[in-house]
Amino acid sequence: xxxxxxxxxxPLHGVRxxxxxxxxxxxxxxxxxxxQINLRITRRSEPRPGGSxxxxxxxxxxxxxxxxxVVGPPGSEQRLISAYSGPEASVVDVSAQRTALDLDGPxxxxxxxxxxxxxxxxxxxxxGDCAQTVxxxxxxxxxxxxxxxxxxxxxxxxxxxxxxxxxxxxxxxxGH
Amino acid sequence: MMLIPCPWCGPRDxxxxxxxxxxxxxxxxxxxxxSDAEWARYLFFRDNPKGxxxxxxxxxxxxxxxxxxxxxxxxxxxxx
Amino acid sequence: MTxxxxxxxxxxVDRDTPLSFRFDGREYQGFRGDTLASALLANxxxxxxxxxxxxxxxxxxxxxxxxxxxIVQIEEPFPEPMLTAxxxxxxxxxxxxxxxxxxxxxxxxxxxxxDSTHAHCDVLVIGAGPAGLAAAATAASSGARVILLDDQPRPGGSxxxxxxxxxxxxxxxxxxxxxxxxxxxTRTTAFGYYDDNHVIAVQRRTGHLGALAPAHLSREGVxxxxxxxxxxxxxxxxxxxxxxxxxxxxxxxxxxxxTYVNRYGVLPGxxxxxxxxxxxxxxxxxDLAAAGVEIATIADLRPxxxxxxxxxxxxxxxxxxxxxxxxxTLRSPDGAGREVDADLLLVSxxxxxVGALYSQAGGRLAYDPELGAFRPDGGCxxxxxxxxxxxxxxxxGVCLAEGAAMGGRAADAAGFTARGIVLPEAADPAGTxxxxxxxxxxxxxxxxxxxxxxxxxxxxxxRATGTGMRSVxxxxxxxxAGTAHDQGRTGGTLTSGVVAELLGVEVGxxxxxxxxxxxxxxxxxxxxxxxxxxxxxxxRVTALHGRxxxxxxxxxxxxxxxxxxxxxxxxxxxxxxxxxxxxAAREGVAMMDASTLGKIDVQGPDAGDFLDRLYTNxxxxxxxxxxxxxxxxxPDGMVFDDGTVIRLTDERFLVTTTTGNAAAVLDWMEEWLQxxxxxxxxxxxxxxxxxxTVALVGPRSRDVLxxxxxxxxxxxxxxxxxxxxxxxxxxLSARVCRxxxxxxxxxxxxxxxxxxxxLWEALLAAGAAHxxxxxGTETMHVLRAEKGYxxxxxxxxxxxxxxxxxxxxxxxxxxxxxxxxxxxTRTDTAxxxxxxxxxxxxxxxxxxxxxxxxxxxxxxxxxxxxTSSYRSAALGRTFALALLRGGRDLIGQTVWATLxxxxxxxxxxxxxxxxxxxxxxxx
Lengths: 176, 80, 923
Fold this sequence. Notes:
The complex is a heterotrimer of chains A (176), B (80) and C (923). Chain A contains four helices and ten strands. Chain A has helices at 16-20, 77-84, 108-115, 158-168, and strands spanning 27-31, 35-40, 52-55, 58-64, 67-72, 90-93, 98-104, 130-135, 138-144, 149-154. In chain A, a hairpin with a 2-residue loop joins β8 and β9. The radius of gyration of chain A is 17 Å and the shape is globular. Chain A starts with 15 loop residues before the first helix and ends in an 8-residue tail after the last helix. The relative contact order of chain A is 0.21. Helices cover 11% and strands 34% of the residues of chain B. Chain B has one helix at 36-44; strands at 3-6, 10-13, 18-22, 52-58, 66-72. Chain C is an alpha+beta fold. Chain C has 20 helices and 47 strands. Helix content of chain C is 21%, strand content 30%. Chains in contact: A-B, A-C, B-C. Chain A: Pfam families: SoxG. Chain A: This is Sarcosine oxidase subunit gamma. Chain C: Residues 122-264 form the FAD/NAD(P)-binding domain. Chain C: It comes from Actinoplanes xinjiangensis.
């Protein structure tokens, strides 16, 4: 018996169309099926605490003093596991643990401020900075990118977060 | 809402943290060697000062690291 | 003219926008820019409410948030109780009525949206009067991020009431609005000042638009502002004096009357008597006279004052008129009386710096005898500065200079350097110092009001001190003075003054009451924001949630998770559905979404040792490929969690936790690793949502698995109980565990979250011939309870040991130590008569309510309670689990369950009621 691959589902599969209707103040898009590796290793200096690094198609996000999240394109799990495994390292495939939402637009900071207590002003939270924090009562990893923010949200919370974004969007004043 | 200085992530809202009670209460090296009274003291007794108190916090919504700080229990000022 | 008390010109109202409104059933007109109070005054309506306790007529007393009297109910567009007419902005179609104390909540849900936002700044300035504007402009000149907030619709503060320097106000406001890092929030009241400069404010966004408010925008929003530095420029409130009938409509604060004339172009009366302790009332009298109010006389309570036509040392002895002031009897220092006709009595008993936020911030308010008021003592531990009248500076020039200075210091403290700003010229005339006066002599103390909103009089305060109370805090609680929703803004200091007089002590020694949030009333809707309905708390769903919905599942909340509870078919009730699902699991094949179980990857050279320390049983002896059930306790020996431990490799395990405890167990592991055993080389990572898990249960489960996993040896010998295999299932990478939470032959199949639907559909298809049946948590509970498997958190409550649960077999006797071990030999945990988990069979076949108490027959002694109770398809009867004192010694005996309508006999049994020999797990 073989699988029907058309049944593969990212956590926000069901709300993709509704998120796509947002435009103007914010745009929101799920980036599904990213490969994600939790890397635990001591004595690694990059990225610095609260930062992330990008190398080609792979981002490394700081999660804790010995903990990093390696994010690569869909299907790159084995490549990342091989690249980061080592005697002092522990590597866990967590690809489906979280899904990614890319948020952009002139209202994106205003949107995040509705539900996130940390200061996201570019003086404080610059491009490349990342934080594990709470957004809409939901644990997230937040990364500031060249344009907008990436929110990595636990798969079980993703639908709640999407509903929260859709509910908040009428109140955004930016871009109007 | 206190602002608690996580040694790794910087100041964050108190709601991102779990409180761990009095710091410096070590798990006894050999629990079996303790009397019931001594073991009960470890389990159930903690200081409750009015003023500076060294206590444990975990940045549970952030880097998940445990750390200690001294807080004035009257004013909530973090002293160190 | 429809507004007989409206001036021909002047004021900041928009005369081109007339607005119609109704009050107490009558139609009136006002202008945009009015408050309900100013519009009522313009129409000659002064009496707006009856007092709470005594029902005395009351009029508009102030022009702002300090209002104690003018409490109104808004009826349309949406009912809102207990608003002050002095803060309700007028809009067309407003319908309001007067209130006697208590308002009425709307019967319907509020259709408006509310929200809440977080903000951060270097300098937060609270109050946009002269000091606040100067502070904000100075701070903004440094490049610092500045937030300026004010409760009025426009900046200006007291200048709006005095009409001075409005050009400067407009210029500064425009500059601030254009500054890139500055935000000006009007109609915004800071109501809470918490630790670490966390200031909470509510912004009224669309309420002033009435029915024209856009429905998609939030009506109000709460701002949670974290400021590095704060400048409090909250100004001062004028206070009253205690004299007989000082509550009559027409008695008004002098500064408020000035505001009605200058800001709203409204005359509060035609002929006024002024009573004052300080110079500020003279400016009010001048402005009113210029607007056409006849100033009959000024009684100045300072005996030595030399000020034109004022009567030095004169006081008010009586106020005539009940519905409205008609005349005032004045008394000279030597006792001579004089009755003066007037429809307005303007009072200035001095000014109180608004210190509520300073007090909330942890600062102390100290009495300043020269000021005759309590003001910030300057010793607050938070990063704040006080400027202007909030600190007791009442001259405009001083306020402006202080504002600029404090704004600059705040920016400096935040690491910025301010440039200077241009301040308007303000001459501060030398004057006569104020006098601190509280009660005026003569008159009936029972009508000398200290707190207008609570109807607390000098007589009430005397009764309090007469009972022996010496603390103003006690007097407050005894008399309720200061506890109304105006929080004693006009009456609090007066109350302290009167009590000090009664006790014969200094006001400063007596002190004032403590201020607590909220400074001003704030609606629950605003506090809730968008955390309502489905957004109140995050709802967590599994990858299969949509599929469960299409199966028609009803859901149960398990922590934040939604789990399928049962899957009713047409016309089926819960009992019927659960019996059918149970039967399928025991007789055929059934499947359940078990994805919510917590999953933690534990790896490292010391992982086995670490798990030995956490679990009560031995884990390190587990072979790779095998699975063991484990129990975790707290150090006090009480069960904390349970689950399975899978050994993946020598140095790697996967542990499962209960659904509700996944985060707590991971935190628990990190706590011990980081704080007690840092030498252990172990790392723990949550993979709860990486995997989706489907439990495949029942005698036919092997057949179904064989069909979807052709590469897997599913034979009894080839795939033993409590082992796992990595294999392909339905073409997916999968991990299959042979474990059972029902006693039946069963498997748990794990695939990526993304592939859950693929797996589910494949199992449905492969099991169709066997009647495969999806089941929910209720059936899971019945199946496990029939086997006596406890559910942590349902059959336990933090006071239950593994031995109490009959899990003594899972407690290692070989290990030197593990968390909880020492506690098992404590006197209390070793007692033989502890509550133990047992089974119950109700003699009458009824279903016992969970939580029912269990007692002995006579005398009735409580033995324990029912923890789980179900109908069993397999047993053909109802049964329950219970925690029962000395329960295992009571097996075979009868105890009694207490129900609403009496006692029901139940027979105690062992906890394993179904297949006690365990013959079914291998199929």
